[in-house]
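Aim 2, interim progress. The first record below pairs a target sequence with its structure tokens.
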Amino acid sequence: MRRIFLVYFVSVLFLAIGTIEAIHGAQGEEKDRKPDRAISIYPEYPVIVAQKGEEVRMDLRVVNGGKSDEDVLLSLVSVPDGWKARIKTYSFPVKGVHVPKDSTKTLTFLAEPDKNIGPGEYSFKVKATTTDGKLSHENTLTIEVASEKQAKDQDIVLTTSYPVLRGPSDATFEFSLDIQNKTDQETSFDLLAKGPKDWQINFKPAYEDKYISSLRLKENQSRNVAVQVKPPRLAPIGEYPITVTVSSGKSKAEAQLTVVLTGTYKLEAGTPTGLLSLSAQQGKTSQLSLYVKNTGTAPNHDITFLSFKPENWKVEFQPERIDVIEPGDLKQVEVRITPAQEALVGDYSVGVSVKGEKADADVELRVTVKASPFWAWVGIGVILAVIAGLCVLFVVLGRR
């Protein structure tokens, strides 16, 4: 019993190690495709609504998407009249930040209005520049100061911590949306979502599987609702906006969500006729055509071929490598198979593996090795010679 447990434990351990190495290898390939240098700066919420005289404070993110660490200088390019703004961390202002490669640093953007600032939209422009001046990026934050009437009408408050989610096209995305009833009475709210055509968007209570279309909240009560988004399987790569509306009578609030599709990686391989068999002779080359099709929604790069063949056999591919196959495209590959000179007559299995960027496809071929026609004629000649010899022997013995 102990021996069985030990064997099981060791097997699980090696499986876990292999999985970790595979994940690290995939991450390494992903990092190799990143640009050498790339920086960006963006506010957590590009457009917000504030009350008159209210101080605005939010996260400001500086992203280094390159392969090397960067020292980034920060500046406020434009600040509206009547406002004071600064970029800070903890309790002191900052004008620069060190951002390690492939990471994000979060700072605080602080804006203070004068007492005479009235309702309207006020735009602030922030800029990030590398110390050598070769890279820069700007972004705009808009603060909408609500009128007194708007402030009274703000009966519904929607907040979400992660308004942007990214993943493959065959994934299901789930946003967390907090709905707060700011009225002084119990109210029923209608839930509505508008997204791209053929997308499935549903509301459901947090940690539950049932779908809902309305929600009833007591005064000043808040409730967390999940917004489940399922794109079509073949949806192309891109950013897709989704507008969520919560309404009750004349009161209405909206939240903007975004799904970023990175695409799916799938390959299909086979023969144009559907037959996966061919005949060959010892030491002679036979040829078979294969197709490789990208059935995913993202381009597949660096496609190579491997073969699993009997000993002393030769398998060649033409071309040996395909740089890229776009979604829905198909490429043809010629497979040249040469059995060993000493191969016996019979059926053999030859495996072909198509290795893509993030997807594989396998094909198993049956190769029937037949004897050379020369030996067939030799066999026929031997048979004829034997028959002729027997005839002569019968004639001679018959005379006696």
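The second target in this work package is listed in the same format:
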Amino acid sequence: MQTKTMYLPGFANLMRPSRAKTEAVQVMAEASSIDGLAALVARFIPTELFKTAAGQRNRLFTAMVTFTAFLGQVMDRGSSCREAVRRVQAWFLAWGQVTPDDSTSAYCQARRRLDLTLIAKAFERLCTWFEAETKKTDLWLGRTVRILDGTGMSMPDTKENRSQFDYAAGQLPGCGFPTGKLVGLFSLATGHLSHFMLSNWKVHDARLARQLLAWLLPGEVIVADRGFCGWPFLASLVQKQLDVVVRLSASKKTKTSLEHWPKPQRRPHWSPALWSALPKALTMRIVRYRVSEPGFRTKDVVLATTLLDTKKYPDEAIIELYSRRWQIELNFRDIKTTLGLDVLRAKAPELVLKEVYMQAIAYNLVRGVMLQSARQHHRPIYQLSFKGTVDTLQQWTGLFGHTDRKTLNARWSDLLCALAADLVPQRPNRSEPRAIKRRPKPHQRLNKPRHKMIVRNARRDKKVRNASKNALS
């Protein structure tokens, strides 16, 4: 029997047996989760950006609702579109509004309809917040440092994705996945992703990196690995009045500490106007040091930099700066492993770019929370746990919905305090083998398209059955 009360409307389900009570609690939890996520977004991105323009159709899945639901999917690696719709339903139900139906069609259409320009603006506003929060004490010898590197990602094997993203090397048609490449710039001071470029995996990292130069300001320092140690790219940085610290490629041999690299005689695939605008030669300072750790082979590392003033930028400072380049590998691990950028789920190229942008926004939102926690409790930002912050936000976002501003600020302070207590140990120069302990399942590899493998296996099973019958007869 359902118990009703006139004094507590909306709580009738809580008076029912345990199953209905559990369902009601789950609905309220999902509503608080997406409401709290929207409150989190509003702390870093102006909500006016998502307002419906005059003359546009009023929809259940507005830009803000779709953006927040999409963000919730990104921050929860295994979240499906069905789960996103359930969260939106609970959100609308908690506010007493008309709820969308159970079909995921409307949400998927809204997600496809969500303007990429709007998502890019949200990403830019978030990056602007980081630039305003960066202090002079965060800079390296008074200079802004950006770390540059590239990474790869795979996506569903659809005809649309294959039209723009090719298979990786060695993959047969129907047996692999389209692969993309992302080259990103991270801030060394705050760890946020400031700019990125996405393209086919066949495009060289330095070619994508040149497209990022338009967003860099003169006087900034770029730190990169040996994959970017090409004369044309380094000359482009010098032309932009940027300094660089890069590991010397193995093909270059140096003997002195100050060298002049002349312009190559052979012009690469550049336009004559761009190539002639580059300087005639580069003056590079060479810094050498040895890495010696017990149990590992001693390595000689050679760096090349345009920071020629040895008094202002001594060798020890250059070496220490390049040692922090490893932080970008950890940043990519946070995006790819924790948030799921390594395997995308979008089945069309335009949705692939949207998903990458949403991954970048989710990453920067987490970094923004970590930065506020580090500022308030005087902790180094790189000692806060990214995975711990994501887990804490998933459990605490329900506290930020349906509450007044005073209570919201108190809960936010409690969240920042909890994050500041979750520190990771400092382990510089740690070296671990890139090996997998858990063995994979002993299934056969898909070396042919799936439908051909099914036909082959059916014929094999038929032969086995016939052989068994003949043996019994």
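Residues 12-114 form one domain. This observation will shape the mutagenesis plan for the next reporting period.
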